[in-house]
Structure formats: structure tokens, C-alpha cells
Design brief:
With 456 residues, the protein is α/β, with parallel strands linked by helices. The chain is 34% helix and 23% strand. It has three domains: 3-217 and 332-407, Rossmann fold (3-Layer(aba) Sandwich), CATH 3.40.50; 219-325; 424-455, no CATH class. The chain has a nine-stranded mixed beta sheet with strand order 1-2-3-7-6-8-9-12-13, with helices on both faces. Strands 15-14-16-17 form a four-stranded antiparallel beta sheet, with no helix packed on it. The chain is globular, with a radius of gyration of 22 Å.
């Protein structure tokens, strides 16, 4: 990342903000199965942003997840003397995915959107696919490319606000964000970009809460651990994603054969870019190619050319610079008004615990964020196993944030929407979420009692 990228991205973002046209592509009734089927809604949309080079315009995709009561407008919140459908937005930065079917617009994750939309506060969730998934799944994903991801996700929030206004929803100004694993890094990347660049206040005026779980914040330190002689690693697809992310996302003049041994120098990119395999399936393919298993991991020096990947090799200077630039625990000043929650499992075998320690020390010791704004939580369990507890923490803490937000203005008074001629249980909706006053007469697809209905 460099000044040219920042200036070009800012100019392009300003240009797009004047001409962006977001489009709803699908509306789907979802269910979270916990003590019975609990309904919520997903609205997919496309929006305009920029590619990782910060210059090229690109259309991306994202999803909005609505609690049922918000989508169907069966209750309102009174905040500061005004009625709102939702108290605000929450940005969900997704965790590591490698298969196209895992994108938020394709398949809601039962550990993330479902629990939040059905058990959480009155917030609408923004879940971007990110560059490389959804409508851009033919492109290499911009994996752990901090500023590029931040721009794309901030643009997704801006597009969401414009769409919600067109759909007739009133949304108060509470804004929080969260993410686990890759999403933890993305959340801190959004925070860093917001705190170091001019962002349109109509898109994000402030970030009230940033909650990160088991994120790889310090890529520099992680790379150093991989280059230790005889190092092993249990999640080899993570190495390939980081390397490809830096080469493609930062547009480095480095070949994959400079880093990976054959045949991995071609196979890894083929597996990653196919978007047909899960991370476990890519890991299994790597184990089958060079040996190892999930318990023992791989010998790193059988996968990557540790003799060539060195800070003493000038040909690798751009790679190590990209790794540093995309580490989010160096060289920026966070907003002192944002609350931070850092969660990490001490047993995490994929993203070492030192990532949380380095992020905590940066915020607390380097930037002076006090205990009233910074909370850390150490859990147990392997990387994937620790995710559910993180989500439960997120729901609880953002719920408490919402309660404080409402209490500091006025008491929330849920009310039945009386501006309709039919009861909420029998309401009809257009596919873009607009509630109708009567059964529609015009031909088309509508939503009624949670189902799509064709009026002929």
C-alpha cells in the first residue's frame, strides 16, 4: 500500500459516491434452527466500489440480514423522540472462506447471521461478500489486504444506507462492527481506515464498537514464525491464501515459484481460485501433495522456499513491505471514542495467540486506549470451536451497547405499526421489503407469510 493507492482510492470513492447505483438482486426468508425454526430475512444487493488496485471500478455484492420484526415492520423504536425501524447497522466482516457457496449472499452462516438476526438487538446486519466472492468470484480474493477490504466494506455500508432509505426503512445512527478470524483482521482494517482517512459521515459518522475474534492482526510476526527452522503449521491453506493475497492484492512483481516449491506453485493457486473447495479440502490436498496431516501439520520448509523468502533478499522487499502494510497493529492512531473488544482462544492452532497480545499492547500501550474502552477475553478451544462463544459475546455486548444508546436518549417503546389496513401476520411485501397496505393486484412476485407468492 502507498500514497498513490490512498489518493486514487479516495478519489474513486468520491466519484462513485456520486454515481453509485445499488441494485437488489434477491430477497429470501431464512431460518435459524434453535428451539424451532426462527425466521429472519436476507436481501442481496450489488454496489459499486474499487478493485484492490484502488483505481479500477468494480461491482461487488453484499447481503443485508434483517430480524423478522424489522423486515416486516411489526415494531418500532422510539429514539430521541423519533420512531425508527432499527437502532442502526452492524457490519459483519466474514471469516475465511474459499468456496463460492460460503459467501454471505449465497449461504447465510448458521454461526453468524442467524443467531445475530434472531437473538440480537434491533440492528440490520451488513455482510459484504468481499472482493473475490459473490459477483467477483472469478477473481483472486483480496485476502488480508487491509485498506482495499476496508474501502470495499465501507462502500457496502454506504450502499446499504441508500438502499434502506429507498426501501422506506428508518435507521438510527448506532454503528458497530465485528468479525472472526479473517473478519477480525478486516474489522480492524475498517477501523484503521476510518481513523486515518476522510470517510463520508453520511456513510459512517462514527464507529461505536469494534469486536474482533482470533484475528491475524500481525502478519509480520506470523511470517517470522513460519520462517523459523523446522517450523510446522497445521493449516497450510492459510499460508497460500496470505501469499496469494499479498501478490495479487498488492500487485507485487513476484512469481509463485519464488515462494512455493513445485508443484504447489501452480496447484495452490488453482485450488484457491477454483472457489470449489473448502479450506479443509484445500488443506487435505496439500497434505496429500507434500505429507503431513491436521494433527502434525506440515513442515513449512517443504511448502515454501524459506531459503529465498528472506529480508536479506532484495527481490522479496516488496513482499515483506506488503506484509507490514497489511498488519493492523502498527503506525496508526485509533479513535479514542470507539470501544474495542478483543477475543482470542489461547489454544488457537491457526492464528497464534500473540496476535491478540500484539493488538492489545498496541491499542493500550502505544495508543493509550484505557480499560473503559478496551476489553480483552481469553477463551479455550481450537480456532473453529471458539467461534460460537465469540458470536454469543458479540450479541450480548452489542445488545448492551444498544440499550445504553437508547437509555441515553429516550426509552424505546415498541409499537405495532398502525399505518396498515391489514394485521402484520397477514402482511404482503414487495421483494425489496416494502410493506403493502392490501393484497397486491399487480402481477409479480411478493412475500406473504414468509413465502414467495406469484400473483398472475
Amino acid at each position: 500500500m502507498n500514497k498513490k493507492f490512498y489518493l486514487s482510492a479516495l478519489l474513486m470513492a468520491c466519484t462513485l459516491s456520486l454515481s453509485a447505483e445499488e441494485v437488489i438482486t434477491d430477497t429470501t426468508l431464512m431460518t435459524f434452527n434453535m428451539m424451532g425454526a426462527m425466521p429472519y430475512y436476507r436481501v442481496n444487493y450489488t454496489y459499486e466500489s474499487v478493485a484492490p488496485d484502488g483505481v479500477t471500478p468494480v461491482t461487488l455484492s453484499s447481503a443485508l440480514f434483517f430480524p423478522q420484526r424489522i423486515f416486516e415492520r411489526t415494531a418500532m423504536l422510539e429514539i430521541a423522540g423519533k420512531e425508527f425501524n432499527a437502532s442502526g447497522l452492524v457490519l459483519n466482516n466474514h471469516f475465511t472462506i474459499t468456496k463460492r457457496d460460503e459467501a454471505p449472499t449465497v449461504n447465510s452462516n448458521p454461526l453468524i447471521e442467524g443467531p445475530f438476526a434472531t437473538l440480537g438487538p434491533s440492528l440490520i446486519i451488513v455482510s459484504p461478500d468481499s472482493y473475490g466472492f459473490g459477483v467477483t468470484d472469478d477473481k483472486p480474493q483480496a485476502y488480508l489486504i487491509a485498506d482495499a477490504t476496508a474501502i470495499n466494506h465501507i462502500d457496502a455500508v454506504g450502499a446499504a444506507r441508500r438502499l434502506l432509505k429507498k426501501m422506506g426503512y428508518s435507521v438510527a445512527d448506532l454503528f458497530a462492527q465485528f468479525g472472526y478470524s479473517q473478519g477480525g483482521h478486516s474489522s480492524m482494517a475498517v477501523q484503521r481506515y476510518f481513523d486515518t482517512h476522510e470517510v463520508d459521515p453520511a456513510v459512517i459518522s462514527r464507529i461505536d464498537y469494534t469486536l474482533c475474534g482470533d484475528g491475524p492482526y500481525d502478519l509480520k510476526a506470523m511470517m517470522d514464525t513460519l520462517l523459523i527452522p523446522d517450523a510446522t503449521f497445521p493449516y497450510p491453506c492459510g499460508i497460500s491464501l496470505i501469499v496469494e493475497g499479498q501478490i495479487e492484492g498488492a500487485n507485487l512483481d513476484i512469481s509463485y515459484s519464488d515462494i512455493f516449491y513445485a508443484p504447489l506453485d501452480t496447484k495452490l493457486i488453482e485450488w484457491n481460485d477454483s472457489k470449489a473447495l473448502t479450506t479443509d479440502e484445500i488443506n487435505d490436498s496439500i497434505f496429500a501433495c507434500i505429507g503431513g496431516n491436521p494433527s502434525t501439520g506440515i513442515r513449512v520448509d517443504k511448502m515454501i522456499r524459506t531459503d529465498n523468502i528472506s529480508r536479506t533478499n532484495p527481490a522479496m522487499d516488496s513482499y515483506f513491505q506488503a506484509i507490514y502494510d497489511n498488519s493492523v497493529c502498527y503506525d496508526w492512531t485509533p479513535n479514542p471514542d470507539t470501544r474495542f473488544f478483543l477475543y482470542h482462544s489461547a489454544d488457537d492452532e491457526v492464528v497464534p495467540y500473540f496476535n491478540m497480545e500484539h493488538m492489545r499492547d498496541f491499542l493500550r500501550d502505544k495508543c493509550g486506549i484505557g480499560d473503559d474502552k478496551l476489553e480483552t477475553y481469553t477463551s479455550e478451544g481450537r480456532h473453529v470451536d471458539a467461534a460460537l462463544l465469540f458470536v454469543m459475546n458479540v450479541i450480548s455486548k452489542i445488545g448492551a451497547l444498544e440499550a445504553d444508546y437508547i437509555a441515553n436518549t429516550t426509552v424505546a417503546i415498541p409499537t405495532i405499526d398502525s399505518n396498515n389496513d391489514i394485521p402484520a401476520s397477514d402482511a404482503w411485501f414487495t421483494l425489496d421489503g416494502r410493506r403493502l397496505t392490501t393484497k397486491p393486484a399487480a402481477k409479480g412476485l411478493y412475500i406473504h407469510n414468509g413465502r414467495k407468492v406469484l400473483i398472475k
